[in-house]
Specification:
The protein has about 190 residues and is mainly β. It is about 10% helix and about 70% strand. The chain has one helix and ten strands; from the N terminus they run αββββββββββ. A hairpin with a 5-residue loop joins strand 8 and strand 9. It is elongated.
């Protein structure tokens, strides 16, 4: 029994050491869909997000790097349509813990600036009004990593915790949002250590 425990500990340590001093390249893809039904109408929102990141793993557990994110939303509320485009750029810190040679859990904390552009379409669909806002974001996302082969693997998360702000031009709204959305979104991504 002791030999098995020693071998398991060595396997975990060798997996962790293989990652030290490597470059992490990762990306997540996310999709959310929301629908509210009323007696005579319904509201729909669908959002697609792509978030690549690059970092340096300087320690067995710690990675620091940069991230960008782009998302596009289609909103249909009571017959009016809106298109939202959001762009983010910032940095992240990742703390990861290998469970064995195949599975690891990690948490990313990201912080940065964001920009959003909205187009609100008139009922005829031909004309629209533009709005633009700038702000910041901060968030923590726990996830599971599955090592498929030689540091290449899949990332899975089902939400996170965060805060974001946007201040819109032309006397527009000042927007702030706190979210805790575990189980409401699904993100699947890939990552590779070089």
């Amino acid at each position: 029994m002791k030999k098995i425990l020693v071998m398991a500990a060595l396997a975990i340590c060798s997996f962790a050491n293989a990652q030290k001093g490597t470059i992490l390249v990762a990306g997540n893809i996310g999709y959310t869909s929301e629908k509210s039904e009323y007696q005579f109408s319904e509201d729909k929102t669908s959002t697609f997000t792509f978030s690549p990141k690059v970092g340096y793993q300087f320690n067995n557990n710690w990675t620091v790097g940069g991230e960008i994110s782009s998302s596009s939303s289609d909103v249909d509320v009571a017959g009016s349509k809106r298109k939202d485009n959001n762009f983010r750029i910032g940095g992240f810190v990742r703390y990861s813990v290998p469970l064995n040679q195949t599975f690891s859990v990690f948490a990313d904390m990201g912080l940065g600036f964001q920009n959003e552009k909205n187009k609100v379409y008139a009922n005829n669909g031909n004309s629209y009004v533009k709005y633009k806002g700038d702000g910041m974001y901060i968030g923590v996302t726990p996830a599971l990593f599955i090592n498929m082969k030689k540091g290449f693997g899949l990332n899975f998360n089902i939400g996170g915790l965060g805060y974001e702000t946007l201040s819109f031009d032309n006397n527009g709204e000042d927007y702030s949002k706190f979210f805790f959305n575990f189980g409401q979104t699904v993100n699947i991504g890939v990552s590779k250590n070089f």
